[in-house]
Amino acid sequence: MIGSILGNVRVIAKRIWQSPSVKVLLVALVLFFCVDFSFPVKTTIPYSTLITARDGSILHVFLSRDDKWRMYAELPEITPTLRDAILFKEDKYFRYHFGFNPVAMVRAAGRNLLSGRRTSGASTITMQTVRLLEPRQRTYRSKLIELFRAVQLEVHYSKDEILQLYLNLIPYGGNIEGLKSASLLYFGKPPKLLSLAELTTLTIIPNRPSSLRLGTNNAFVVQERNRWLTRFRTNHLFNDETINDALNEPLIAYRRSAPQLAPHLSRRLRAENPDSPIIHASLQPATQATAEQLVRNYSNRIRAHNIHNSAVLVVDNRTREVIAYVGSSDFGNAFDGGQVDGVRAIRSPGSALKPLLYGLAFDAGAITPKTKLNDVPTNFSGYEPDNYDRKFNGPVTAEFALANSLNIPAVALLKEVGTPVLIATLRKAGFSTIRKQARDLGLSMILGGCGVTLEEMTRLYTGLANGGSVNELHFTTQPATARPRPNQEKGVSVVSKEAAYLITNTLTQITRPDLPNNFDNSYHLPRIAWKTGTSYGRRDAWSIGYNQRYTIGVWVGNFSGIGVAELSGANTATPLLFQLFNALDYNSPNGWFRKPASSLSMRLVCPETGDIPGEFCANPITDYCIMGVSHYRRCQHRKAVFTNAAGTLSYCAHCRPDSGAVRRSYANLSPEVAVFYQSRHIPFDKMPPHNPACERVFGGNAGPLITSLNDGSDYFINPKQPADLELGCQAANDVETVFWYLNDKLYRKAKPTEAIFFKPQPGPLKISCADDKGRYSDLRVMIKNE
Fold first, then answer.
1. pLDDT tens, residue by residue, 168-183
2. CATH number of the domain within which 203 lies
3. CB neighbours of 232 closer than 8 A, spacing ≥ 6?
4. Per annotation, catalytic residue among 90, 292, 498, 608
């Protein structure tokens, strides 16, 4: 039984295969696919670039490469109402044919023959799409090509994709193409928000774009619209109530300007995604509008001080998405360089990099918040920085130095941590200009002697708000859904969580000089951690702050690079920062940063040095420390010395008498602090001079620090009128006299704080300085004629 059935099947199959019609069909298919492969249909179209916000609203639209407003409509934007209306009007059997409708073609041919002229066409939506893709003269040869191309489209694309392509290409007069373009430019909203009356209006215009002109002939358009609405009712396409509402709806349509919001970010995203018709930016429209308005108003206020430009970047700390991007205060102001993107402009950061340096020092165990740093005049191998206010504070705590943005402690700290360490960290954090400048950077970089951008700085501070983990900022988001990104992306750890907390805790203090003097709403100070920066020559003012929710970076200055005396991070950039936080996140419900419980603990330290209390430390205070990392040094701010009963002579171990010596403690100051106190006439208990009868010469400790000249440097003099060169040193507080030697010959005896001058002679020069304890130091320089 089964064998006979199989035999019959074979016979039938053989007859079908041998049938001439089947052979013709197979040959036709082979020919079709060969031609299809050789001449594929081209659907690559230069669309206008659309920049959408996080909520899907359109921020900015650019002309296509061929200067058309041709906006790409995505499949979800083709609503059932739109689909039903366009298919009823253009191609009722679109879902059933394979690119062309034979019945319609025969009917149209018969009508045209009977009337002797072309009275109706038989073009399907697929064929019309082909004609829009490849415009040709209306000939029979062109019609055959259209038929073939229509079948190609049906083979390679779904019906929905063909309908989408058609709606993106239909003409609306002038340089407007596509239903989405017409919807935005004539009705000011996307297709999915159009009413039935508006949809019907847009479906009838492509057939007669010259006579049905929106904005100039609206009465005639309404007449034609209502005629088609009546046909929809007759064919029960929509219910009577919907049709009646559409018939009574007035037509409010006129030519609108294309959206041109967030111009700097829009141009940036377009350049980075040249082939994307729709780019979904991460901006929040309300936040962007608020930031733009505040920047514009603030810039108008400070323009009287000859300060013309500002830039702002607002980042969501949890997702690292940029929710506001203001490249300049006025994009349309060509005179002041309004089209320059201040977010990406390379500028000097001033002191804004200091928090990172202190974080690195915390992690290196070099300091804790209460560690004392010396804010005194210091020469760093020829580099002598000064503070912003040109004042010095003497020994200060690390947290005070950071909160008050003191320069000398920062430079000294960078010298201890190492410039290569800071450069490597910045390179790791994505500072591109630092990467290029690495070989030329020195200690001055911590005071602004390098190039950074507002984007890089804001990204760095976003990392501090995320426990020291720096990651790329996101300028785009996923289409439509725009789900928040989880805060689990692997970033680059620049400082530990403990160091980040210590930085945040310090930058939250409000008793500091970079609090604006004239802040309008000082009673509404936002609770944020922030740091300011002012570049050399007052060309750039920075203020970057963060709380749990946002990080906001502000730059104020002139794109031209002109400095302004009134420009400063505290009084120029910080007021705008405070306004932004008060407007965007006043009284934030997200709480504050929590102390890492694992390895950050408290300990008692000496208030004089920040070290572990020693023999002479009274009234210890508490300080944070990172367990296993922070240094564990005994405080030595005072030194035990044996003196005579009157306290006028000191003894060393070799000359101390068997009786009568008294053990006392004296301030153990570093040479630079001792010199600072002496120059400012600040009293301190100075160690008495050493016993002159002592015959023991000792030099176990370092000799005086020569601060002028600089070791290894070349000095050029005018041979006819050589200028005097100065010799200077810093000695310990037990030194009364120093001896200067030039090429091993005694030149002068002087006090440690006394400035000595000499007339140089061309050639190599060895300079030595010895103190009255036999300790010495020397350096070598080269004197050359100009």
1. 999 998 899 999 999 9
2. 1.10.3810.10
3. 85, 88, 200, 238, 243
4. 90
